[in-house]
Each structure stands twice: as structure tokens, then as C-alpha cells.
């Protein structure tokens, strides 16, 4: 994203978005601008100042003589996923040839298995009927099949059971649907 050289402090006004565990007591001008632009207007959280650690594990930048240290590198994450990050610290071990330390971020990801949606088949059928041509063809086919049923009702078929009629209607609809 970029290097902002921001210092985020422990001021109560920024507590909901930044936390209370920063290396600094006061936020610098760039930090104020970053907090006002990203977390407040874009719905982000500054997670790097939320976790309690020794100060040595919060130091992300050090001067050439190693006497001055700052916490200027921060992790911004959407409010929706803020609970996914469980810990952030700056380990001093890896030598990356820079005046910055790496940030080690622990996070948990909840994966969900997507099961087959039974409604998908119904949706496909409904989407099929959005096409006016197919809708009209289906209506004509159903009308033709019902005409056949009406013609079958002569005196020989009067004794048919209502369940048999219902079964024949169901099969007509199923066959027409295919």
C-alpha cells in the first residue's frame, strides 16, 4: 500500500479504531490523517496497535545508530474481518537489509464448504420461464395435454379414481418440463 511513516498514539478518541497498545503516546500529523482517511471513512481498523506486547516487539523502524525506534508500519483491515487477526508483532531476528522490521501477523481463517444448493435446479427452471418464447411453448404444450385429458373423459373412463387423474396430471407436467 505504501509507506506513510505514521505514528499512532494511545489517545482515547482513536481507541475504537486503533487500540490502546501503541508504542507512542501521541499520534503524529500523518497518523491523524491516516486514521481519518482509512479507518473512519473506509471502515478499516488499525490492528497493529491492538495487541499487548513488550515495546521491543512493537518497534517496526529503527535509526541507523539504533538509538531511536518507532512503530511506523501498521496493518489496516476491514471491520468485517478484524477478528481474523489474532496477533501482530515485529520480530527482530530476520535481517532483511532495511531499517524496518518485518511484521509477523497471525490470523485465523474460517473456511466454509459450499454444499450443493437444491434451489439451484428450481432457479434454473424459473430462469427458463423468463424467456417469453419458452414460456409460450410450455403453455401450449400444457394446454394440448389437458385437452387430451378432457377428451378421455367419456363414459368408459368415468370410473377413474381421482388419484389416477392427479398422477396423470403430474406426469404430464414433468414430461412437458423436460
Write the layout of secondary structure elements.
Blueprint: H1 15-18, H2 29-42, E1 44-46, E2 61-62, E3 69-70, E4 76-78, E5 85-89, E6 104-107, H3 119-128, H4 132-152, H5 162-177
Antiparallel strand pairs: 1-4, 2-3, 5-6
Radius of gyration: 34 Å
Specify the biggest β-sheet. 2 strands, antiparallel
Low-confidence stretches are none
**What fraction of the residues are assigned to beta strands by DSSP?**
5-15%
Instruction: Provide the spatial order of strands within the biggest beta sheet.
Output: 1-4
Mean pLDDT: 78
Question: Which range best describes the helical content: under 10%, 10-25%, 25-40%, 40-55%, 55-70% or over 70%?
Answer: 25-40%
Tally the helices: what do you get?
Answer: 5
In sequence order, what are the helices and strands, one letter per element?
A: HHEEEEEEHHH
Distance between the termini: 53 Å
> How many individual domains?
2
Shape: rod-shaped
Structural class: alpha+beta
- Tally of DSSP β-strands: 6
Summarize the structure.
The protein has 178 residues and is an alpha+beta fold.
Could you explain how this protein is built, in words?
- It is rod-shaped and about 100 Å long.
- The protein is built from five helices and six strands.
- The two termini are 53 Å apart.
- The chain has helices spanning 15-18, 29-42, 119-128, 132-152, 162-177; strands at residues 44-46, 61-62, 69-70, 76-78, 85-89, 104-107.
- The relative contact order is 0.09.
- It folds into two domains: 12-107, no CATH class; 119-177, no CATH class.
- It has 178 residues and is of the alpha+beta class.
- The mean pLDDT is 78.
- β2 (61-62) and β3 form a beta hairpin.
- The chain has a two-stranded antiparallel ribbon with strand order 1-4. Strands 2-3 form a two-stranded antiparallel sheet.
Amino acid at each position: 500500500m505504501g509507506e506513510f511513516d505514521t505514528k499512532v498514539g494511545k489517545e482515547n478518541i482513536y481507541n475504537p479504531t486503533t487500540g490502546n497498545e501503541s508504542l507512542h503516546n501521541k499520534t503524529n500529523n500523518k497518523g491523524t490523517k491516516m486514521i481519518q482517511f482509512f479507518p473512519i471513512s473506509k471502515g478499516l481498523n488499525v490492528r497493529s496497535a491492538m495487541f499487548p506486547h513488550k515495546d521491543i516487539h512493537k518497534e517496526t523502524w529503527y535509526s541507523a545508530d539504533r538509538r531511536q525506534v518507532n512503530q511506523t508500519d501498521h496493518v489496516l483491515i476491514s471491520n468485517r474481518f478484524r477478528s481474523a487477526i489474532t496477533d501482530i508483532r515485529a520480530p527482530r531476528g530476520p535481517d532483511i537489509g532495511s531499517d524496518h522490521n518485518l511484521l509477523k501477523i497471525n490470523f485465523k481463517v474460517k473456511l466454509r464448504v459450499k454444499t450443493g444448493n437444491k434451489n439451484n435446479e428450481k432457479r434454473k427452471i424459473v430462469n427458463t420461464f423468463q424467456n417469453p418464447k419458452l414460456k409460450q411453448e410450455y403453455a401450449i404444450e400444457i394446454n394440448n395435454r389437458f385437452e387430451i385429458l378432457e377428451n378421455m373423459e367419456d363414459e368408459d373412463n368415468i370410473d377413474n379414481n381421482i388419484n389416477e387423474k392427479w398422477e396423470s396430471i403430474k406426469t404430464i407436467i414433468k414430461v412437458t418440463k423436460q
